[in-house]
Amino acid sequence: MILFLLTFLCLYGGINFYFFFRARSVLHFSGALQALLLVLLIFLILAPVVVRTLESLHCEQAARFVACTGYVWMAFVFLFFFLSVSLELVRFLHKLIVPEIGTMALKAVTFGLSVLLSAGLVVYGCIDAQRVRVRTLQIPTEQILPGKGKIRIIQISDVHVGIIIRNDRLSPMLEKVREAKPDMLVSTGDLLDGELDNIMADAERFAAIETPAGKFAVLGNHEYYAGVSRSIEFTEAAGFQILRDDVTQAAGLTIFGEDDITGRKPGATPKSAAFLKALAEKQNGFVLLLKHQPHIREKANFNLQLSGHTHGGQLFPFGFIVKLYFPRIYGLHTLAENKLLYISRGTGTWGPPVRIFAPPEITVIDLIGKKQ
């Protein structure tokens, strides 16, 4: 985690200083203004660390302010970097073809366009991140299902209840879930994000959703970052049965819940070997696997794996970077006969409360099988 944080701060700091030097070359700051902007920039670079520190000190209002400011800036400066580098490449090629055009004029134009486009995309992304979509899938199976032979499973993933996603931000998500009338509700990790006080009221809002076949959840990497004990307390208060390398039966389904790779430390999940052995065996009936990260075990024997983690990229064009680690980052994928993988784009946001061309979703999955 420390290595990740240092790497992130170095890369993120480099992007911020790229913005600063580009702005200085066009706007020609005075000495005093330049010093002030540098101090502000360093604060924005360190904002993610400041947020976690304020959370641990239980300074929730201050943490919320820093988070909203720092994370929106993060989205802006990432987009600026991508657009600026792209436009500067165009400017360089244009200069080779038409060398008489003034260099400074074109630099000002590319800088201005990068700022305006980035700001516009961030505004759009902040609005779109709150417009939760409903993705509906119908999955036929030859397996016998109870009742009329149909089970409705709703998947939520990567909600990230925390400093930004809570209270009113949760309302549209929970309303979509209620409107879909689930038989079963599953959470495929990262339900919780931070170390907040007074969040049990948000857990109770999940618990109030009626699901005849139950609620099931697996832990994601952020549950470990927030603290496992705290995360388990919240998830159970939300009405979920947590599956940590566990298998259970519900509504005629065999449900495997695999603990996130973040927790695979000696003694963290001592059932892992027995769990993986059971997952490789042939089961009777439909097998549902809940797993936060969309890694596929070749020997795993399931009919449908539900995963999240990737956020579908969350901010275009960063989906291309995510694909370096996860070749499949969103949607329904056929792995083999009667073996499917569905990766959710996620219901909330992590970091910037912004989604660009990767809208949030809840997934309504109708399993249609044979009647008993």
Question: How would you sum up this structure, described in words?
Answer:
- This protein has 372 residues and is an alpha/beta fold.
- It has eleven helices and twelve strands.
- It has helices at 2-27, 31-45, 47-56, 60-97, 103-128, 171-180, 200-207, 221-226, 228-237, 272-280, 319-322; strands at 133-145, 150-156, 184-188, 215-218, 241-242, 246-250, 253-258, 286-291, 304-307, 331-336, 339-343, 361-371.
- It is elongated.
- The relative contact order is 0.14.
Secondary structure elements and their pairing?
Blueprint: H1 2-27, H2 31-45, H3 47-56, H4 60-97, H5 103-128, E1 133-145, E2 150-156, H6 171-180, E3 184-188, H7 200-207, E4 215-218, H8 221-226, H9 228-237, E5 241-242, E6 246-250, E7 253-258, H10 272-280, E8 286-291, E9 304-307, H11 319-322, E10 331-336, E11 339-343, E12 361-371
